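Category: protein sequence paired with discrete backbone structure
Discipline: computational structural biology
Format: plain text, a pair of labelled lines
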Amino acid sequence: MSAATELRDILTEGDELTIVCHNNPDPDCLASALALGRIAADAGIDERRILYSGDISHQQNRALVNLLEIELQEFDADIVRDREPGSLLAFVDHAVPGVNNHVPDGTLVDVVIDHHPTDDIEAGFQDHRDDVGATATILTEYVRELDTELDDQLATALLFAIRRETLGFLRGATAAEYEAAGFLHGQADRDLLRKLSSPAVSSATVDAIADAIENRQVFGAVLLSNVGRTSERDALPQAADYLATLEGVGTTFVFGIVGDSIQLSGRTTDSRVNVGSVLHDAFDDAGSGGGHREMAGAEIPLGIFADYTSNDRHLVDIVEQVVTARLLAELNIDTDKGDTQENEAG
């Protein structure tokens, strides 16, 4: 039995479906949730909801939700906790309760579909493929095999998600992404794809990227930078992507204070570096971190950092010192031995 058929059989046994996105969902997560909802509708589930936590702050994420009219609800723990028999719970683009989501540890999950490197997945149905470039690729395969109706909205969402997750098929793309894109291409709305690809950028995002450029420090082929405190969480991966294009740089980490937590984003084109492992090993004792070899993120509660000072500038300085020291230690970079080629912090 194929994964798509197994999934359909599980869904036909349910009366309602709650799809939980990971915190601050990106296009891959949102499009995958939309597709799973369509598959569930075909399986006879009339009551469906998509829940999310955090913010939809990246301009492309907001555009995806608004232009494609994806219906979302803010996460409600009661919905997850007080489920009746026949009420199914699904994760897309993440896999473990309490990890990058607000679902309580130990919660029974019925469906998990994910492409991130993850251990200890427990679910009634799981399709975990860390050898593909996007979760949307897996959902496209299901839509195709199950003959789910593919309208302009769904095709555009899935195609945009695959393109965005793989940076235009340049990062982590496999033959499966190209096959999925070929299937979706004819039905996708090209005008919407253009709008999604180049939405307006807020001044706060531009300011955060400018701060990352100004504060950069280069250690050999590794670049570290911070944006200080920002309201634009998604400016961090955008800054990391931009700084990764700097000549001579193979690995980039950008961090900043967002709300009551420290957020980090990592990128690499260096085959010797796994940024997912670096962030996990450097910060797992203090927060959560991980992802792919080429792209990853981490989140650390401010916690004790905030107890040191009420001065925001001092707080940023303390966070910069600690985060930088942990990253350099994990990367085995010893600045006392001359590993620092350039220090351009402003």
Summary: The chain has two domains: 3-197, 203-343. Residues 3-197 form a domain with the inorganic pyrophosphatase (n-terminal core) fold (CATH 3.90.1640.10). The chain has a mean pLDDT of 91. The chain is about 40% helix and 20% strand.
